[in-house]
UniProtKB/TrEMBL annotation:
Gene3D superfamilies on file: lambda repressor-like DNA-binding domains
Parts forming coiled coils: none
Protein's organism: Chitinimonas lacunae
PROSITE patterns the record matches: HTH_CROC1
Stretches assigned to the HTH cro/C1-type domain: 20-74
Pfam family, one: HTH_31
UniProt-recorded name of the protein: Helix-turn-helix transcriptional regulator
Amino acid sequence: MTETTKPARASQLTPFGKVLRKLRIDHNERLADMAKRLGISGAYLSFIETGNKPVPESWPALIAEHYELSSSALEELHRAVARSEYTIKLTPEATPLQRAAAEVLVRRWNMIDDNGAGSLLELLDDIAPDTPEGEPA
């Protein structure tokens, strides 16, 4: 099951786009400068920053290399990529019941107000605490 959405406005930056913009500011670069450094067009970079194109898998490492980022900065890039993804995929290991629950949540998502979303987050924190990827709960 996959659910895809895009940012509300085309000019709205994703979390990954915000990290890239800060990186450009810190290095006194324009979008065109960063695009040239990465070997892409400015338009393509802009599409990625605004969520209109997915972040290529190799980009966090490529950006870390080009900008000589620390390992913690690379981890932040990976987190920003994850927060910027508007497609959520269930792992193949998901059980039929887990898939059914996810499908119901996606179908009814727009019916849930902020109070309901907060309640869901609290419930999920209770039954499945968030842990760094790859670590057991």
